[in-house]
Amino acid sequence: MEKKGYFQAMQDWHTVLHSAVCRIKRDTYIWHLSSSTSILVGYLLMLPTVALVALFWWYPLLEVLYASFFNWDGLSPLQHFVGLANYRTLLFEDPYFWNAVKNTLIWSAMYVTIPVVIGLVAALMLNARIGGENIFKGILYLPSAISFAVVAFIWGWMYHPAGGLINQMLRALNLGVLAQPWLASNTFVLPAINIASSWVHVGFALVVFLAGLRSIPDELIEAATIDGASQWQTIRHILIPLLRPAFTVVLGWTLMLSVNVFDQINILTKGGPGRASEVLSIYLYVKTFLEHQAGMASAVGIIMFLLAAAGGILYVRQMISQEVTA
Amino acid sequence: MKTKVLSRRRFLRTAALVGGSLAVTNLVPAQVSAAAKNQFTSSYPAVSAQEKKLVSFWHIYTEEPRNKGVEAVISAFEKAYPEIKVEANAVFHQDAKVVFPNVIKTSRPPDVIQLRTTSLARISIDAGLVMDITEMYEEKGYDKRFGPLGDTADWKGRKWSIPFNLDQFPGVWYFKDVFEKMGLKPPTTLDELEVILAEFKKNNISAIWIGNRDRWHAPYMVEYLILRLGGVKTWKGLADGSAHWTDPEVVAAFEKFADWLNKGYFYPDMNAYDITDLYPYWTSDQIGMCGPCGPWAFENAKLAGRDADYFPFPVLKEGDPVVGIVNAEPFSISKNAPHPEEAKLLLDFLGSKEAQQIFMDITNIPMANLDVDVSNQPEPIQKMIKDAHTLPSVLGFDWDLPEAAFSVAQPAIQEFVADPTPATIAKVTKEIEDSVQKWLQQG
Amino acid sequence: MNIASDSSLWRRLKQRLARALLYIALIVISVIWLLPLISVIFTSLKPEGEIYATTAWMLPRAPTLANFVDAWQTVIGNFINTVLITVPSSLFSVAIGSLGAYAIARLRLPASQLIYLLIVASITIPFASIIPSLVRLLDNIGLINTIPGIILVHTAHGQVIVVFLLARFFATIHEDILDAARVDGCSILGIYWRIVLPLSGAALAATFILQFTWIWNDYFKALVIVPQKTNAPITVGMTLLAGQYAGKWHIRSAAAIIATLPTVAIFLGFQRFFIRGVTVGAVKG
Description:
The structure holds 3 protein chains of 3 kinds.
Chain A: H1 6-21, H2 36-67, E1 70-71, E2 80-81, H3 85-93, H4 95-111, H5 114-126, H6 133-141, H7 148-158, H8 165-172, H9 189-214, H10 218-226, H11 231-242, H12 244-259, H13 263-268, H14 280-290, H15 294-325
Antiparallel strand pairs in A: 1-2
Helix pairs in contact in A: 1-10, 2-15, 4-9, 4-12, 4-14, 5-9, 9-12, 10-11, 12-15, 14-15
Chain B: H1 2-27, H2 29-41, E1 53-59, H3 66-80, E2 84-90, H4 93-105, E3 112-113, H5 118-126, H6 134-140, H7 142-146, E4 154-155, E5 158-159, E6 162-168, E7 171-175, H8 176-182, H9 190-202, E8 206-209, H10 217-240, H11 248-262, H12 279-283, E9 287-293, H13 296-303, E10 308-311, E11 324-325, E12 327-333, H14 340-351, H15 353-363, H16 379-390, E13 393-394, H17 397-400, H18 403-418, H19 422-442
Chain C: H1 2-44, H2 66-106, H3 112-121, H4 127-140, H5 147-171, H6 175-183, H7 188-199, H8 201-217, H9 220-225, H10 234-239, H11 249-270, H12 278-284
Helix pairs in contact in C: 1-11, 2-3, 2-5, 2-8, 2-11, 3-5, 5-8, 8-11
C-alpha cells in the first residue's frame, strides 16, 4: 500500500467528492457572491430562521426589558414605572441575588467540565470501531432520552440518605463515614445535582463529538498511522484539532445552557437547603410565580441574559477565530 | 449503501419541503392570525359535536382518589344540567402556580378556576381577572353553608370564591397499638406531648417525622408552635403586619422547635426527605408519629396496612382553645369567562352539599360545606372533620402570609432546622421580618 | 527477521491488551450509567406499597405489568400529541435552520456574523422570564393552547441549536470544493443541495436526534403553552399521574419507560448516518 501524507490524503478526499458530487451544469450562469441577486438569495435563505428567532426570542426579550422598568405583579397592565429601581435593588440591596449569581457560576464551572470530558472520552473510545458499539452508544445516550421529571426522581432516590444506592454502597464498602444527606448538605447539594444533570448531558456531548469524529475522513487517520504516529499522538495531533468545531458547539452550548439550568434543581431541591442551590433561574421563577414580582423578575432575566450572552459570545468568537487559524 | 443515501435524500427533501411551507406561513402571521383565531380558539375549550353549552373547569385534582372524586362530581352536575357539558382540565398542583396565572390572563380563560393561595387570588382580583360573586352569596345564603370558612373568600369587602375541600387540617398521626404497648395516650398539652417524645427517644425511636425537602412541611411545625405559644392574635398580626417575627412569642416558638430538634426527637436530616420518603419508616415503627400531617398520612398508612389515628396539635396549657390551621381550596369564576351563566351554575353546584358529599365519600377528605354527612367515614377522619368544622381555625402561612414573606420563610426555616442554634434563630427571624417590612413599604 | 516478528508480535499483543482495556472501561462506564435506571425498571414492575426509596434497588416481590396498562391508558392521548408535536417540530427546525446555517456559514453576506451571534445568544434568554409575553403573543395570533402553537415555538427555539451546530459543521467543508462547484456552475441552492447537505450527513443526523430528544422531553414549554390536557404532550400528561401527597412512582416509572422508548429508537435508528464516509462510499459504489 502506498504511503500517503496528511495533505495528500486531504486533497484526494476533496477531489473525489468534488468530481462526484457536483454534477457539472454547462449553462452560462456563473454565480457571483457580489451580485445583488445572490445577496438577496442569501438573505432569503436566512429569513425564516431570523423571523422565527426574532418573533419568539427577541421580541419577548424586548418586552421583558420594558417590563423590568416597572413595578409589576405579572397579571395587571404595566402601570408603575420605576426606572432603574429594580436593577438598583437587585445589585445593591438584595443579598439573595448575589448568592444566586455565585451559585450559577459554580454550577456553570462544573457543568462545562464533567459532562464534556466524559462525553469526549466516550466518543473517542466508541470511535475505535469495536463490536457492540451500538449497545454502548445506546446505553450512554439513554439518560438523555428521559425527561427531567423522571431523572430528578431517579437521582432523588440515588441520594436518599438511608436507602439511596450511593450511601448503601459506601456503607457496604466500609466507607460509611463518607455517607451524606447529599441533597440536604450545603456543601454537596450543587455537585450532587450537577452529577445527575451530567449523567443526562453526556448524551449531547457524545452525539456531537461522534458526529465530528465521523466527519473526519479515514484516510487522514490511516495516513497518520502509517506515518508511525501512536494512538495518543493521532488523538492529540489530528483528531482533537479537527474536532474544534465540535468543541465550539459542545462547550459554547453547555456554557450558555448552564446559566439557564432550572428543571432538575426545581424538582430536586427548589433551591434548598436554605438557598444553597438557588441559581439565578430559580430565583427568577420564585420572583415571578411565587412572589408575583414580575417587574423585578424581568430585571433578573435581563441581567442573566447579559451575563450569559457576554460570556457565551466572547467564548464562541474566540473559538471561531481559532477554528479559522487552525 | 445506495439505499441508505437515497433514504437520506428523501428525508432531507421532505424536510425541506415541509419546512419551507411552514416558513412561508410563518412569515404572514397577520393573515394567518384571523383565520387561525377562529379555527383554534373555538377549540379551546374544544367544541363537542353536540349542541351542548360548555363550561370549562380547571382544577388541581390529579391523583387518586381526588381525580375520581372530581369526576364523580362533574358527572353528577352534567346529570343535573343535561344541556351543559363540562370541559374539565386538571393541572399538577406544583405547576398550577405557573399555569393558572398565565391562563387566566388569556382572551379565553377557563370559566371556573381553582385559584389556590390567597395571595394569587388577591393579585388576580386586583388585576380585574376574577368575577365578584357577592350577590351569589347573598341570594343563596352561602354564609350558612360554609360558616366561618366562607370568610376565606373575602377581599376588599366582597366575595370572590366558594370553598370546596379543606386542603389541610393537619394534626398528629400515630398508631393506637404502639401507644397502647408503650402505655401512652394522646396528649392535649405540649407538656404531655413532650413526655411522649421523650418516651420514644428513650426507646431509641425517632418520635416524629417531617419531610422538608419540598420546604412546606417544617413550616407547619413552626406555624403550630407560633399559634400555640403566641395565640391567634400573634398569628393574625403576622399576616397583617401588626405583629413581628422578632417578637418574643415567635422566637419562643422557634426555640421550642430547636429544643426538640436538639434533643433528637425528629427523624434526622429532615431537609433530605420528600414527604413520601418517610412513610415506610413510620409504618414499620422506626418512627413514632407523623406530624403535623394532613389526612394523607391516614391514606398512606392504610396502604401499608396500618390504621393510623389522629389528635389535634396540643395546646400550651389546659383550657386553651384548640385552633386549627385550615386552608379551603377555592373555586372562582374568571371575569372574562366565555360562559359566565353556566359557570355560575357549576360554581353553585360545587358548593352544594350534594357535590361535596360525593367528593368526600370517595376521597375521605374534609369538606367546607357544613351539612355534609360524615357518618360513613373512617373513625379518625370523622373525628378530624368534626374538629375542622367545630374548632376555630386560621389560614396557613403559605396561603395567608404576604407572598414575599413566605418565599423568604421557606428557605429560612430549612436553614433553621439544619442548624437549630440561637444565632440561626436570630438570623432567620430577622430575615423574615425584614422581608415583611419591605413588602409593607412597597404597598 | 527475528526483530521484525518480535516487534509485530509485541505490537499485536499490545493491540489486544488495549482493546481489552477499552472493553473493560466501556463496560464499567455502561454499568455505572445503567445503575440509576434499574430503579425505574424495578419500580415500574412493583405494585403500590412496595415503592419506597429504601427498596428501590430490590427486585419486585410481586412483579406486575398492571402499571404499564394503567400508564398507557392514561397517557395514550398525550403520547399521540407528543408524536404530533415532536415530528414536525424537529423536521421543521432542522430544515429551516440548515438553510440559515448555510447562508451564515458559507455566504459572506454583510452583517451575517452579527446575525449569527444574535441567534446563538438567544439561548441565554431565560425562558421563565419570557413566559408572559410569549403567552400573550400566542394568544394574540390565536395559537395558545394548540398543537400548532407549540410546534411554532419549538421550531423557533430550535433554530438556535440547529444554526449553531450546523453552521460550525458547514464551515468545515473545504473552501476548494465549494469554489470548484461554483465555477462548474452550481447555483447557491445547488451547492447547498448537492454538496453541503450530502457532506453533512452525520451533523444533520446529530442535529435531528438532539432536536427530537429535546422536544420529546420538553416539559416546561409545553406546560406553559399547551397546559390543557387534551393537547398536551406526554411529559405534561405524566404529571397527571402524580399527586400532591403520594408519588405514584410505580405508574410514573412505567409511563417514563413508555415515553423513553421512541427517543432511544430514533437515536439508534439515525446511528447509520454516523457511519464514516457514507457519502464517498455511496458515490463510488
